Amino acid sequence: MKLLSKKGMLFIFLIIAIIGAFIVYKMANKSHLDISSSAPKITIEATKLIDEFLIDETTANTNYLDKLIAVKGTISDIKIEDKKGIISLKTEDDFGSVLCHLSIEATQNLSELEIGQNIQIKGICTGFLMDVILVRCEIINQ
Predict the structure, then answer these.
(1) pLDDT by residue, tens only, the chain of 142 residues
(2) Residue 83 and residue 50 share a domain
(3) Are β-strands 132-141 and 68-81 bridged in parallel, bridged antiparallel, or unpaired?
(4) Which residue of 43, 49, 113, 115 pairs with 70 in a disulfide if CB–CB is 3.0 to 4.6 A?
């Protein structure tokens, strides 16, 4: 059987490179979900959310990972890092909480919040380490 000529191999490589570049371009320019105007697919209590990750992380990832969710809970901590607010929602787990990394717009309203206050926040779930992490969060009610 005759091997592909150098021109044939170069042509195949060029086609693969063009397809790869197209995929990278599309992913890099993918439009982001507008959190503030989008409705969350799921609303859940902070304690129930962390419990689901502790019981079965694989199933919880399937249900929540990279999805817009709303979480209800009680504020246990408020801080600012890199000019963005982070709200911790209290859970019944001593070591874990739900960490909500606020958008820049939501951070501007951080002074209106206080520890112990009940709140509902929506954001994109990025997974579980010791805490469940939500990013690009917006405050739904305070």
Answers:
(1) 456 688 888 888 899 999 999 888 887 776 677 777 788 989 999 999 999 999 999 999 999 999 999 999 999 999 999 889 999 999 988 788 999 999 989 999 888 899 999 999 999 999 998 899 999 999 998 5
(2) yes
(3) unpaired
(4) 43
Domain that holds residue 17: 1-30
CA distance 101 to 17: 37
Task: Report d(CA 63, CA 66) in Å as an integer.
Answer: 9
Local structure of 103: helix, strand or coil: coil
Mutual angle of helices 46-55 and 57-64, in 10-degree steps: 130
The structural domain count of the chain equals 2
Residue burial 115-132, b: 16+ Cβ < 10 Å; e: rest: eeeebbbbbbbbebeebb
